[in-house]
Specification:
Alpha-Beta Plaits, 6-stranded parallel beta sheet, globular, 15 helices, Rossmann fold, 22 strands, alpha/beta
């Protein structure tokens, strides 16, 4: 697949590295020679130096023969990304997508307008991150969660504490214990020491494991009981950092929670936030790196703490401090992928990474048109995919245990009409089922073939 990425910033560079490992033919355009040089030293890509909205530069990159054009220019107005993508489409690119920074463009009416102009996808990383954090605040016992079909199936990532009832238990023993109830959940993967394991019956759960489980809506309370977890009732949230993500969270949750406090060190930004947010959102000007300041602002009285400054180190350390002060749920934005596991080891309950969640939205375009959804979960390098099963797909030919499904992938659950259920070996997939699959990166292309 021939893919052109315009913009070698953080998101563009991450996409280039990820897609190049998938065997794609990747070209990256940027007007900054230094950024291109750094990327070329770390990824198998072709680089083109030039103006992001120049037709000549687009033609030099051979955009007219590309399968996918991704416009993610850093430090430029969103207009540049939109114009570049639309030019690429007119020049011959099969699919185009652009990064934006205006939530208004994502309304149904405006998305239809852009689709008619030739745009296949607009994405706003900060909006995606805000939505993820809102979900994490709702599912407060998980380090990460993902809903399918409005929650009828859900994938949760749960970290095993030292006193967890299933530590040192084999999967076979856990399955036998849980089988007294109707099958409402299934362990689909374990992340351990930076390695993702698709578990077998003799796999033993260990302290600090991050367990990925798919569950029905009815099975969620039962699952938490087995894992020794309790959902935390979150009614008050303190947010460190008043950037776009913090603003969107406060707007989305302002009417649902009894209190939100935003700590922002820029005075002018504080004034803007005060005008844009609801009355129950308190905006305070101050430095959230100061533990005494956080104490003075009543951090002990909040149910959750979310750190969203531009510094990974500040976000992680502020969450550690919040945890020490007794806040039950702490979430940090961490953009350096190398820091994610470190943050989790230091006690951060959940980590948000804009590059990873954005990558999933775009990676969908490199797979078959039967993929409804792709998501990277921050505790693992594996991907979660949702397919709609096409007539004649190989996946429908026999029960799952008889079709030689890739070893590094697992079908977790199925939505069929109004039913939702957990998949097992005897399950036979049917045409038009919606299927949730958990797959290691090297297995994704092979999984995709089963649904064509």
């Amino acid at each position: 697949m021939r893919i052109i990425i315009e913009g070698a910033g953080e998101v563009g560079s991450h996409l280039a590295k990820m897609l190049s490992t998938e065997g794609g033919d990747i070209t990256v355009i940027d007007n900054n020679e230094e950024r291109l040089g750094k990327l070329a030293a770390n990824a198998d890509v072709v680089t083109v130096l030039g103006n992001p909205s120049s037709i000549k530069v687009l033609k030099d990159a051979d955009v007219q023969h590309s399968d996918l054009f991704i416009s993610v220019n850093p430090f430029v107005p969103q207009d540049v990304n939109i114009i570049s993508a639309l030019l690429a489409k007119k020049l011959g690119s099969k699919k185009v997508t652009a990064r934006i920074d205006d939530e208004e463009f994502l309304s149904s009416e405006n998305k239809l307008l852009f689709k008619e102009m030739g745009m296949d996808l607009l994405f706003y990383p900060e909006k995606i991150a805000a939505d993820e954090i809102n979900d994490l605040l709702k599912h407060s016992a998980s380090t990460e969660s993902m809903d399918f079909a409005r929650g009828r199936l859900q994938i949760s990532a749960i970290k095993l504490d030292e006193d967890s009832p299933i530590v040192d238990m084999k999967l076979e023993e856990f399955t036998a214990m849980a089988s007294t109830d109707k099958l409402q959940f299934r362990v689909i993967a374990i992340s351990r020491n930076n390695e993702t394991i698709i578990p077998k019956f003799d796999t033993k759960f260990k302290y600090h494991d991050l367990i990925f489980i798919i569950t029905t809506r009815e099975g969620q309370p039962l699952l938490m009981r087995y894992f020794g977890k309790n959902e935390i009732e979150i009614d008050t949230v303190m947010i460190l950092g008043g950037g776009p993500i913090g603003e969107m969270i406060s707007k989305q949750l302002g009417k649902q929670l009894s209190g939100i406090k935003i700590i922002e060190k820029d005075k002018e930004r504080c004034l803007q936030l005060s005008e844009k947010t609801d009355n129950n959102v308190v905006v305070v000007n101050g430095d959230g790196r100061n533990a005494d300041f956080l104490l003075d602002e009543g951090i002990r009285d909040y149910d959750a703490f979310v750190a969203l400054t531009g510094s990974d180190e500040t976000n992680v350390l502020a969450c550690v401090v919040a945890k020490k002060f007794g806040v039950e749920r702490v979430i940090a934005e961490v953009e350096n992928i190398e820091y994610i596991h470190l943050a989790e080891e230091m006690g951060v309950d959940a980590v948000i990474n804009k590059k990873l969640i954005t990558a999933g939205r775009i990676f969908k375009f490199t797979l078959s048109d039967k993929v409804r959804f792709v998501r990277y979960m921050s505790g693992t390098d594996a991907e979660v995919l949702e397919y709609t099963v096409a007539p004649g797909s190989y996946i429908t030919k026999a029960p799952l245990k008889d079709i030689d499904f890739p070893k590094n992938a697992i079908v977790g659950g199925i939505i069929r009409g109004s039913e939702s259920f957990i998949a097992v070996g005897n399950t036979k997939i049917e045409t038009y089922d919606r299927v949730a699959v958990f797959a290691a990166p090297e297995a994704v292309k092979e999984v995709d073939r089963f649904f064509k």
